[in-house]
Write a structure and sequence with these properties.
- The structure holds two protein chains of two kinds.
- Chain A has two domains: 2-95, Beta Barrel (Elongation Factor Tu (Ef-tu), domain 3), CATH 2.40.30; 107-279, Nucleotide-binding domain of ferredoxin-NADP reductase (FNR) module (Rossmann fold, 3-Layer(aba) Sandwich), CATH 3.40.50.80.
- In chain A, 17% of the residues lie in helices and 31% in strands.
- Chain A has five helices and 16 strands.
- Chain A has a seven-stranded antiparallel β-sheet with strand order 4-3-7-1-2-6-5.
- The relative contact order of chain A is 0.14.
- In chain B, helix 2 (191-201) runs parallel beside helix 3 (230-243) and helix 3 packs parallel to helix 4 (259-268).
- In chain B, the strands form four sheets. Chain B has an eight-stranded parallel beta barrel, surrounded by six helices.
- By secondary structure, chain B is of the alpha/beta class.
- Chain B has a single domain (58-141, 159-279, 302-385), classed as Alpha-Beta Barrel (TIM Barrel), CATH 3.20.20.70.
- Chain B is globular, with a radius of gyration of 20 Å.
- The longest helix of chain B is centred in the C-terminal third of the chain and has 15 residues, at 360-374.
- The chains are: A alpha/beta, B alpha/beta.
- The A-B interface holds A 1-3, 41, 45-51, 76, 92, 244-258, 263-265, 270, 286-287 and B 108-111, 115-116, 118-119, 131, 139-140, 142-148, 150-153, 155, 157, 160, 295, 303-304, 332, 352-359.
- The structure holds flavin mononucleotide and FE2/S2 (inorganic) cluster (FES).
- Flavin mononucleotide sits between chains B (106-109, 131-132, 155, 157, 159, 185, 213, 251, 278-279, 302-303, 306, 328-331, 350-353) and A (247, 253, 255).
């Protein structure tokens, strides 16, 4: 974790109300991994007292740049859209724990609901660089919300669902999972809580339904892994990137917790944001 | 009648504060003031019988230069434009709790001191108040727990913590190796809870003091907060006082009609210092407008928005008691520190501002030293209490002087 200045290089509205911004921040990018995030200070402390967390949308260590993707949902995000190239912001990062891909996984299924694309986008780059195959399932309300395929690596197989059927599958993105869950070695998801909950349900019954042996059974079988451990994630079929309102983003304020399966609160900013789906409690989720 | 205001100058001799007790009293400390249930009108803030025997106003010892234990040389390389003159920044909060400088970090905003270690020079802080600690583990409140509000934020963490034993097992050894004192913030639901936590903290290396968070519902009194009732506030303070020799700070809630009788009751019960303020009670509404936003409905407001309230409480309390006061509430820059000192605080805590600016507290230490140097002061003590009434104000019966 480092505190460093970041210079805005490029800012554009890629969809109505959705922005993509590139920043040069070599100190932050060094060592950053897909699934982690930055906590960015607005320049208006007298009004906006909290930083804003953003997932790494892309990470480019060679050029020391990163990108973030956000929707304007309030005064904080609007403040960011008014920045001009050359402006500097104060970033804290990289924060949280990354996605963990099992070295043996060849086929990765990424599932994104709406803005959740920002949470899994960088994993597509990382996986393709490592020679894995990637299918990205994307769900949006309507065609206007669909993440442009031009912003994805060519190697990614991109499948879209919309609630109103204006493009792609007419229905929920979770309905697309069935076609890929046997193919996939591991799945990674980010999006609204109901979507994650239904994916977690599918993942929990997957082995029984498909009769597939899960990865990593030989290693450490039966031994409980500490919540939030890299091994627990690497072993899991489904990893989810969680969202929660944040204060500090370093684990100090306990503002951002989710419940784990044992009823203990886990900090999204510290033990997460990426969790193995089976580590979390989904039924009576706090929200 | 003499005002009980603080006249703090570099030359004021230190007078021993009457509340300091070196040994554990077997019974509740003698209450020096008239019973607190008396109507406020009969109990002027500069009241007779308040132990103000001394002429010339009682010095708030910790701030007076003669009590500053050492001239701490703040020739730090990062102090801007620093001419290298030593400025005394140390402050004595009582019972041997001497801080190297008067900038602390507030409970709940700095975890256990380890979370920000990558980016903050933790050892340069005056002290760390750790997250609220209870006897048994607490999972805390449902989410969402935090939300931004105009110039502030609401939080309803619900005192999530692993319990005092786990906190000590996990952190005490680390703290013991630190130069920066760690003050353990203690919460409870009954006097017995508070007292037992204090007993377990007593004598543990690495624990430099206790800050009682009395803004908790008192289960024994139908959930009424300790902090709003002078009698309950005094009782919990006295009980904890008997359980430990650790320096004891008690944190005031701003959600009260008149802070002065409460502050006095706590002083009389043997607290070494007061800290103020805790958060103000508030709520936010969910974007759907179908329910309140926070999982717990109620949250505590903090940040720049609460600073005027903090100033008012410190202003009132500092004229009502003789023990030192550590100010909290909306500190975001040096001007805020100076304002709080002016209304009688001897030190300040930084809370919410840390989230946006983690290195702020350490920079404030350097800035305060630079400010003193620029003004030709060898100590910050003369900045304290400058905005308090010079003469005894007509005693207020109202507590809150606001009259629109
Ligand atoms: C997220 C959060 C958690 C807090 N937790 C505690 C706590 O456990 N105990 C306590 O006495 N005060 C707690 N506080 C109150 C702060 O210590 C402080 O009194 C208050 O925030 C006002 O100061 P500020 O405006 O500088 O934040 C908490 C505040 C925040 C924002
Ligand atoms: S945001 Fe403070 S603990 Fe996670």
């Amino acid at each position: 974790m480092r505190l460093a200045g970041a210079e805005l290089i490029d800012s554009r509205e890629i969809l109505p109300g959705q922005w993509l911004q590139d920043y040069r921040a070599p100190e932050i990018v060094a060592g950053a991994r897909a699934g982690q995030f930055v906590h960015v200070r607005t320049g208006d402390y007298s009004g906006l007292v909290l930083r804003r967390p953003f997932s790494f949308n892309t990470i480019d260590v060679a050029s020391g740049t990163l990108s973030i993707h956000f929707r304007t949902i309030g005064r904080g995000t609007e403040w960011f859209t008014r920045l001009r190239p050359g402006d500097r912001v104060d970033m804290l990062g990289p924060l949280g724990r990354p996605f963990e891909v099992d070295p043996r996984s060849r086929h990765l299924l990424l599932v994104a609901g709406g803005l959740g694309i920002a949470g899994v986008r960088s994993l597509a780059d990382e996986a393709i660089r490592d020679g894995r195959q990637v299918v990205l399932l994307f769900g949006g309300a309507t065609a206007r919300d669909v993440y442009p395929s031009s912003l994805l690596p060519d190697e990614v197989e991109y499948v879209v669902a919309t609630d109103d059927g204006s493009v792609g599958h007419h229905g929920f993105v979770t309905e697309l999972v069935e076609a890929y869950e046997a193919w996939a070695d591991q799945a990674f998801a980010c999006g609204p809580l109901p979507m994650l909950r239904s994916l977690a349900g599918l993942a929990a019954t997957r082995r029984r339904r498909l009769g597939v042996a899960s990865l990593g059974r030989k290693r450490g079988a039966g031994r409980p892994l500490p919540a939030g451990s890299a091994q627990a994630r690497r072993k899991a079929f489904l990893q989810v990137s969680m969202e929660q309102n944040m204060g500090c983003a370093v684990g100090a304020c306990l503002g951002c917790v989710v419940m784990d399966a044992k009823g203990a609160p886990q900090r999204v900013c510290r033990e997460g944001p990426v969790f193995a789906a089976d580590e979390l409690e989904w039924e009576t989720a706090w929200q | 009648m003499k005002a009980k205001r603080r006249v703090v100058t570099a030359v004021t001799p230190y007078k021993r504060r009457p509340t300091v007790r070196k040994i554990k009293p077997a019974i509740a400390p003698v209450v020096r003031r008239p019973p607190i249930e008396r109507p406020a009108a009969e109990q002027p803030s500069n009241g007779a019988g308040a132990g103000t025997a001394a002429g010339g106003g009682s010095p708030v010892g910790p701030a007076s230069a003669s009590r500053a234990v050492a001239m701490h040389d703040l020739r730090s390389s990062d102090a801007a434009g620093d001419q290298g003159a030593a400025v005394a920044l140390s402050v004595d909060l009582g019972r041997g709790l001497v801080l190297e400088n008067p900038i602390l970090v507030a409970s709940g905003t700095f975890g256990y001191g380890t979370e920000y270690a990558d980016v903050v020079q933790v050892q340069r802080l005056g002290a760390i108040c750790c997250k609220g600690t209870t006897l048994r583990p607490r999972v805390g409140n449902p989410t969402p727990r935090v939300t931004e509000t105009p110039a502030g934020m609401l939080n309803s963490i619900g005192l999530q913590n692993p319990g005092v034993d786990a906190v000590l097992a996990k952190y005490a050894e680390t703290w013991a190796g630190w130069k920066v004192p760690v003050i353990v913030n203690v919460a409870g639901e009954s006097i017995a809870d508070y007292t037992e936590v204090a007993r377990r903290l007593d004598g543990v290396p690495g624990v430099a003091g206790i800050e009682l968070n009395i803004s908790c519902p008192n289960v024994g009194r139908g959930g009424l907060q300790f902090a709003i009732d002078p009698e309950a506030a005094g009782a919990v303070t006295a009980s904890v006082r008997r359980a430990t020799d650790l320096p004891l700070l008690v944190k005031l809630s701003p959600n009260v009609a008149d802070i002065r009788p409460i502050a006095r009751a706590i002083e009389d019960a043997g607290a070494d210092a007061l800290t103020a303020i805790n958060t103000l009670s508030g709520i936010a509404v969910a974007p759907t407008r179908q329910r309140p936003l926070l999982g717990n409905v109620y949250g505590g407001l903090s940040g720049p928005a609460v600073k005027p309230v903090g100033l008012r409480i410190v202003y009132e309390a500092s004229q009502a008691v003789r023990i030192p006061i550590v100010a909290i509430g909306g500190v975001t820059e040096l001007a805020d520190v100076l304002d709080y000192l002016a209304v009688g605080a001897v030190a300040v805590q930084v809370g919410t501002a840390i989230f946006a600016d983690p290195t702020l507290p350490v920079r404030l230490v350097d800035q305060l030293a630079a400010e003193c140097r620029a003004r030709g002061l060898s100590s910050y003590a003369s900045l304290i209490g400058t905005a308090l009434p010079k003469k005894a104000a007509a005693p207020s019966a109202k507590g809150v002087e606001y009259r629109p």
